[in-house]
Amino acid sequence: MRRDFEYVVVGLGGLGSATAYWLARGFGEAVLGLEQFEIGHARGASQDHSRIGRLSYHTPAYVQLAGESYAAWAAVEKELESRLLVRTGGLDLWPLNAAIPMDDYTSSLSDQNIAYELLDAPEIMARWPAFVLEEGTTGLFQADAAIVPAAKCNAAHIRLARAHGAMLLDNSPVESITTRGGEIEVSVGSDVYRCRSLVIAADAWTNELTAPLGTKLPLTITQEQVTYFATPHVDEFAPERFPIWIWMDEPSFYGFPVYGEQGTKTGQDVGGEEVTATTRTFDPEPHALERVQSFLRKHIPRSLGPVIYTKTCLYTMPPDRDFVIDALPGHPNIFVAQGAAHAFKFASLIGKIMSDLASAGRSGHPIDGFKIDRPALIDPAAPKHFLV
Ligand SMILES: Cc1cc2nc3c(=O)[nH]c(=O)nc-3n(C[C@H](O)[C@H](O)[C@H](O)COP(=O)(O)OP(=O)(O)OC[C@H]3O[C@@H](n4cnc5c(N)ncnc54)[C@H](O)[C@@H]3O)c2cc1C
Questions:
Q1: 43 C-alpha to ligand 1 centroid (Å)
Q2: Rounded to whole angstroms, how far apart are CA atoms 123 and 116?
Q3: Does 229 share its domain with 312?
Q4: What pLDDT does 22 receive?
Q5: Fewest CB atoms within 10 A around its CB: which of 36, 82, 203, 267?
Q6: What span, in angstroms and rounded, lies between the C-alpha atoms of 271 and 247?
Q7: How many beta carbons lie within 10 A of that of residue 123, not counting itself?
């Protein structure tokens, strides 16, 4: 078995499989990817039918990055010769006195010259009669929002990376990473792989790998869940007729038209209990389900139906809920990609950025805000601000 590579990627979830793909596009067989579980497993953050892709974000930098993420997906679709993203349009909803500032979104979109519509409650309900909204609710409709089919995207990145010559190994848990004379050694059981540059895309497991290298990130891990409901009104919630939506308040909910299952999907953002990657369970939390059902009974009653299933999943968040995309302090050739529990839409772009950093040490994309030594990651008293 080959032991020497130029590049090693640890973790082949959404971000790691994308990194392996973009590295393999440039460096083929010089790339090794290592995944501790089977590829496509459901223990992390990236395995489901759908994730929200959108341009509407709370800062101009994220809006710009979101736009560039569409270009990265388009490059993958071109190589695949088939579409991945399913455009539906996206509706961000602000009830009166909402907890999340609408101005952050409208000013960021305007700053980046991205078109959007502001709609009042009667206009929204005329366009999408399934919504039941109180007077004073405002909607921001942005037409480019799309379903990003997570499981399909991961499989595509994996398949294309292998087609370019990358070696991707599953059931290969990395136990230690050490540096020796400019080389990096990666231990998997009794196997030791060597490389010049390494990317850690391990999300909830990040600190298990970075702490022995001197960096422990202040990450909060929560067990989240989404539920698929077998609505009897499937046609009304078809992707071409019903948008992705986000309720911009506390609690914050989000939902999808019918995709992947014969039902709608809804979840609460940051609604779960704090866990670790080891203590998490796969058991749905009944109170969380009830919160979602009572919200839908009030605002989108026709989207409800018998529960098809509820799927649990891990959020991993720094205090400011911004990504970590940077080299490890003291290790210029070891890079970390951590998605702050909103990164799937950016997965292919982050993969491209990690490939640039690992091979050239820099990236042309706006990543200055994701430094590993920023105050929110250094100051132990930094406030946690997860709702953005
Ligand atoms: C319920 C839910 C809804 C979400 N909705 C959205 C959304 O609508 N839009 C959006 O953009 N984002 C969304 N996100 C966030 C997004 O899914 C994540 O940010 C993204 O999937 C993180 O990808 P990842 O590759 O970093 O993590 P993961 O997929 O968890 O991958 C990390 C991988 O590293 C592996 N690993 C860890 N340690 C080791 C080791 N020692 N050796 C080998 N392998 C190792 C793990 O097994 C795992 O496969 C959502 C997340 C959840 C949970």
A1: 9
A2: 14
A3: yes
A4: 98
A5: 82
A6: 13
A7: 15
Closest ligand 1 atom to 312 CA = 1
Nearest atom in ligand 1 to the alpha carbon of residue 345 is: 11
Angle at 221 between CA 215 and CA 224, to 5 degrees: 155
Tens-place pLDDT, residues 80-93: 999 999 999 999 99
- What was the pLDDT predicted at 380? 95
Q: Are residues 332 and 292 in the same domain?
A: no
Indicate whether 128 pLDDT > 90: yes
Residue 1 in 3-state DSSP?
coil
Categorize the per-residue pLDDT at 370 as very low, low, confident or very high, splitting at 50, 70 and 90. Answer: very high
CB 41 within 8 A of CB 12: no
Length of the chain: 388
Ligand 1: atom nearest CA of 16 is 25
Helix (H) or strand (E) holding 93: strand 90-94
Closest CA to 348 of 118, 125, 190, 156: 156
Ligand 1 site, residue 226, Cβ cutoff 6 A: yes
